[in-house]
Design a protein that fits this description.
heterotrimer; A alpha/beta; B alpha/beta; C alpha/beta; A: alpha/beta; Rossmann fold; six-stranded parallel β-sheet; 6 helices; C: Rossmann fold; 2 domains; four-stranded parallel β-sheet; 53% helix; globular; binds iron/sulfur cluster
Chain lengths: 215, 477, 242
Amino acid sequence: MDPGRNEILRRVRAALRDIPPGEQPDDVPVARTYRQTGAPHSPELVARFAERVAEYKATVHQIGAEALPSAIAAACARRGVRRLVVPPDLPAAWVPAGIELLRDDRLNNEQLEASDGVLTGCAWGIAQTGTIILDAGQYQGRRIITLLPDYHLCVVRAEQIVDLVPEAVARLTPTVRAARRPITLISGPSATSDIELNRVEGVHGPRTLEVLIVA
Amino acid sequence: MKHEGLPSTPISFYASAKEALANTQLRRNMGKATQTIRAKRASVVSEMPDWEALREAGRAIKERTLRHLDDYLLQLETAVQAAGGHVHWARDAREANQIVTRIVQGHGAREVVKVKSLTTDEIGLNAALAAVGITATETDLAELIIQLAGESSSHILVPAIHKNRAEIRELFMRTLGVSDLSDEPKALAAVARAHLRRKFLSAPVAISGANFAVAETGTVCIVESEGNGRMCLTLPPVLISIMGIEKVIPTWQDFEVFLQLLPRSSTGERMNPYTSLWTGVAPGDGPQEFHLVLLDNGRSGVLADTIGRQTLNCIRCSACLNICPVYERTGGHAYQSVYPGPIGAILTPQLVGVDVAGSLPYASSLCGACYEVCPVKINIPEVLVHMRARVVRKKQAGLLSRLDPENVGMQALGRMFESPLLYEQAQRLARLGQWPLVRGDAISFLPPPLGGWTAMRDLFPVADQTFREWWAARNKT
Amino acid sequence: MQIALFITCFNDTIFPQTGRAMVQLLERLGHRVEFPTAQTCCGQIHFNTGYQREAIPLVRHFVATFARYQVIVAPSASCVGMVREFYARVAEVSGDRRLAADVAALVPRVFELSEFLVHKLGVEDVGAYYPHRVTYHPTCHSLRVLHLGDAPLRLLRKVRGIDLVELPNAEQCCGFGGTFAVKNADTSMAMLGDKLRCVLDTRAEVCAAADNSCLMHIGGALHRQRAGVRAIHLAEILAATE
Ligand code: SF4
């Protein structure tokens, strides 16, 4: 057995001698008086999400469901995307015509780096913070495909948007507890403020994040 | 002034602060930086109507965790193992470094990439790896700058806060072999991106710290901005994360509290750009081998002190640094520890003892600004004063305590204040004794050790008629 | 109302004019002021410097001196802060339960001047007249230990003739901090330098505060520089009349 383990546990228990022996963790009160539910689903909520995502210097468009394929095509055209990475389960209808599609059946690093961008869906969005959540679920794929390409086009359905952080954390519970899938929270493109505190968007991840919100 | 890890020989905050205060460039950079972050923090905190409720919940969750830390560590271990990860326990820095070195060598790796982590700085991991021929590359922009410059960081969150763009440009041109570089932050960031991309793609092992680890699920969390964290956590086939034992939180639900407290307190953003969460190994996605190293290195000693214990609430947001009027002026290096600012002033002496770091608890005017902003409500002034008491007890236990002028003076002062008679006598004596010093209506020179006062300030003397003398005279008539 | 004046050792010895102003002001408002002459020091110097055991007899002495008074008022935010925030801790260190109980009973009856006037008596206009340009420095212990908020400013705003100007960066520490000013004199002076710049920028002739300890620090430097700005305790402004 690990000698460090026993010793650390012994030290911790010795340090906690002042705790009454019968005390259970739940005997230490935690008041959850902070907001756990926010505004219900509404156009205002979607608008707030759009506004806050945009504040991180991401480009945001709100579109109707029928316009999704054309909006994707338009975004790719604007950006000059020729080779587009997509997760294996991405709906064929989303894929614009005339673009070389790189479906991720274990694409290697070189292929991902040589692409012009990646198109995915997402798990949830948080309006309060302008955050997009990827949980390796539907239309999202492996973490690496949204990391190496320099452009990330992300589709968020309006009903995936919740108001507050606790609402999103609650909805992720099954992903964490049962499926144990990795989760990435994205709030704008990567950024650094390490040089004289000037914010620079785009360091290591995709330097451009574009979001399509589908009503 | 270079200080890897924690100090091991006695340090003097007074001396290092004096040196730092003379650096005008540092003063300017620090002033600008801390004021900018302070304003950002204040603005994103003010938009949260439930901020105080969140702080209280954060504090309470940490209290619950610490009071039952053994249970939660065991839960965490079980959960990580169940998800395909390996768990290691390190009693001290040396043991942690040995564990990591063994894993890295086991894969025959000569090079690792790292995400910024105070914990790995604390244990001096880079030096330990270098000693066996393994190169650790720091991948945060600021850490890279620090590493290239051969310095140590001056801020928890913005380690290169003391360097301006011209200095960084010069450094990159000199060390990365780029020419024709402008001093635009965007251009500087692009150089780092290109330089590090090759490292991310080739390194066989990545090393990170951990912001949180959920006992219930075994989920580990890294909060970051630049994406180098995601790179390290996703690309190399082996991942080693080192966390202090106090970083565990009980449940997944508890995460919702810290995910709100941390970004707003640290970078002053509603949310930081990237937060990564992983639970053991995800088949076919990211590293297929995951090691979690649980580090004690003095933390159990901090835990044993019922007043000092709250120090372990710390989520390393650095809000207390940015608000601190002392830190703003001296910068981080003056604290001579990987943990600077108010948190460093209480944590370092608890980790290494007051013999080494006894000057740090005095590096504060007890203004209380740190307590007010701390997202987990650590009563830093309370712990500072508590640590001062420890310094004094240690001093008094020593053989030379009867020669220590402060101790002697404090004892005399105490005896005087205990007796109104002695006190009144002392007032009269002081009035007599001060006459050689009084010039006009003030004293402009005092002998050491009080000379610090009169270096810049006049001192007002004992009044010709004290209040109690006035009161007695008035009530006589 | 009968009020026991807790003058604090510092004011008694160096700033008696503040004590005299307290008496004048409270009597003008119709109260009876008593001065328990046995009082000395609250123990803050000892406690904050780490001499906790040495603070125990001083806390005992304070409790014995003031136990029989219903209302105790002091012109010092930091000394009242010591009593309110740390007396319980000193009692705990002493291990004396009696002392702990006595402290618990006494602490709620001890007030700082401006909180006493504004929050306890509900008075803002104390009938003062002070025709000077004044800026107010809210000391750290006023702000963050006693949470006085704008009570001192509410009192000052009602003073006739006053030209009250806002102090930039007001909430930042002046660098006093008791023994900090001596032990870390250089850092203390760097903080003081910035505070002075803010005070001078207001072009005020008077810098006021609820604590003579910080004022001694700020005022000591203003005096050294012959800056033409005086540091004056809030009580003295409130006591002034035509
Ligand atoms: S002590 Fe509090 S404010 Fe300072 S870094 Fe830790 S959590 Fe943040």
